[in-house]
């Protein structure tokens, strides 16, 4: 059983994966207990071998996000100038709506910028999930990777050349 968390170190935040294992016996209390072993995501990716390919976000999706962000900021500034000149509540409400669109788009763009499907010699990694070739049961056309233990890794359709990556993964598991 694994648990992934963000750990704050003095040099920044690092994503870590904790492995929870049963210890055989605690002599002082005479019972079994759980211990936690720290294993970073980088160490897990090292188990997958050499990096073959990285499929990041599609340039079209990035351009769309930048366009919406810039356009909503320009409209926000324009409606704030109109509110300053006309002093009507409608312009203020409209400016607030454009500001919300700007903030939401900016946060989603920042959150998605490092999303990438990484293909290694011995498996794949996507966000916080990783799987070796022998753990993968099937790969669906929409990019969903179904593991043999019925867990699913839903790969975003915004990944660049997703069809090429899924066909490569299919060739490795068959």
What does this structure look like?
This protein has about 170 residues and is of the alpha+beta class. The chain has three domains: about 1-40; about 50-55 and about 115-174, no CATH class; about 60-110. About 40% of the residues lie in helices and about 35% in strands. The protein contains four helices and ten strands. It has a four-stranded antiparallel sheet, covered by helices on one side. Strands 1-2-3 form a three-stranded antiparallel sheet. Helix 2 packs antiparallel against helix 3 (about 90-110). The two termini are about 25 Å apart.
The total count of strands amounts to 10
Task: Compute the number of helices.
Answer: 4
User: Averaged pLDDT, please?
Assistant: 79
Question: How far apart, in Å, are the first and last alpha carbons?
Answer: 27 Å
Query: Strand order within the widest sheet?
Result: 4-5-6-7
């Amino acid at each position: 059983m694994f648990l992934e968390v963000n750990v704050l170190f003095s040099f920044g935040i690092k994503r870590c994966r904790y492995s929870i294992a049963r210890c055989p016996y605690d002599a002082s209390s005479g019972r079994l207990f759980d211990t936690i072993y720290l294993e970073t995501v980088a160490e897990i990716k090292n188990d997958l071998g050499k990096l073959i390919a990285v499929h990041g976000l599609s340039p079209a999706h990035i351009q769309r996000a930048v366009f919406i962000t810039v356009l909503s900021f320009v409209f926000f500034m324009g409606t704030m100038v109109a509110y300053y000149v006309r002093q009507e509540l409608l312009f203020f409400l409209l400016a607030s709506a454009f500001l919300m669109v700007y903030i939401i788009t900016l946060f989603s763009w920042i959150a998605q910028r490092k999303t990438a499907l990484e293909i290694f010699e011995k498996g794949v990694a996507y966000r916080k999930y990783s799987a070796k070739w022998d753990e993968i049961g099937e790969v669906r056309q929409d990019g969903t990777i179904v593991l043999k233990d019925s867990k699913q890794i839903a790969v975003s359709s915004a990944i660049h050349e997703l069809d090429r990556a899924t066909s490569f993964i299919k060739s490795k598991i068959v």
